[in-house]
Amino acid sequence: MKFKQVAAVLLFLGILPHHLSAQNPIVQTCYTSDPAPMVHDGTLYVYTGHDEDKADFFWMQEWRVYSTKDMVNWTDHGSPLAIESFAWADDRAWAAQCIERNGKFYWYVCLHSKLTNTMAIGVAVGDTPVGPFKDAIGKPLHDGSWDYIDPTVYIDDDGRAYLYWGNPNIYYAELNEDMISLKGEVGKLEQTVESFGAPNPEKRVKDVKYKDTYTEGPWLHKREGKYYLLYAAGGVPEHIAYSMSDGPLGPWKYMGEIMPLQDTGSFTNHCGVIDYKGNSYFFYHTGKLPGGGGFGRSAAVEQFKYNADGTFPIINATRGAPCAPTLYVSGSKRREIVLPLTLPHFLYLLPTDRAEGLYFYLFQFNCSSPLPFPIVVGRGAFQVLNSILTAFDGRFFPRHGWASSSMYFFRYAHSRHLSAFSRFTISQWSTSAL
Predict the structure, then answer these.
(1) How far does Cα 90 stand from its chain's mean position?
(2) Mind listing the pLDDT tens digit for each residue in 86-142?
(3) What phi, psi does 364 have (nearest 5°)?
(4) What value, to the nearest 5°, has the Cα angle with vertex 108 and ends 107 and 113?
(5) Can you give the C-alpha Rg of the chain in angstroms?
(6) What is the pTM of this model?
């Protein structure tokens, strides 16, 4: 009976590689730029732009929404907002961010304005995170300059809400409680070497090498009493850097790079940061989807941990998304365990029912491999796995001994070539071999 239950679980899991194909870019069906995450009611939403196929510029007509409950399975909610949603706009649906307040969802966007023939900041409103959305005020929230792009929004603990935007200048404004009007005047931050690595654009001296230079794409958030302003920096190509402050409007202190220049396949980058289910995630974009590039960008994500002093670690782009392993026990009984990853090539082993000699294992493959997925197997699997690992010049061995975690036991095991398992599908595992 137990063996039949194992076989049934294996057959059930045969569909999981399709549903759990966690990878970067996180969306494989179209180009999705400038990701902006938001958490609401236990679900993480990502709001993105949409680069057109075979584009030779940032020709973007709409925004899209995706959601997940486990950082593995993503739901495509389509495009609930586009240029046509704003009667005053006619082009360039560029970077945007959505936020919730008092049961309404406010989506701050930038668009080319027909009123001034420049870029402008707009705002749409909806009753759910996925819309439908409509222009909240029938006109730009702020209009009149080519560098009015890439808005980011944050609501502080005291209820005050702030907008930042701009390229290459950094603009800011406080929002009224209605979230669709500005409170007071729009300000412009004074960039200095101390605050952002270089002075304001008009004050930069030609041929002087500065620590860094703010470019575009700000992202404002707060953690443990500290404010963070992340942004694309360095001109073209862009890396991600950040500054910190004790207040939402500064003074800011330049802190360094987060994602250095590397082979992302895109000469721009745009980030968003969010905490979700006890983990921190860094969203960005690359040009790594087939046919992609600087004008065909795709959203990606990395799980990370802040340093002990609250600063960011260096985060590098990968082809794998964060792991959310799931343990299936005895057919219909399902438990979910999320295990921390500390090295890129870890495999997790969880045996149960040891006294009966029946083992269930959860394997979470290299998070940088194309298809990480769980497999549940039974008796004799240890020998089968060892033979397969050996074929790829790998090893299966205890790493830190046994340790208890709640009612489960697990031990770490490591192989230098776990990514080779991406060549296998569940159907290639024979239940008769168990």
Answers:
(1) 29
(2) 999 999 999 999 999 999 999 999 999 999 999 999 999 999 999 999 999 999 999
(3) -110, 110
(4) 125
(5) 24
(6) 0.72
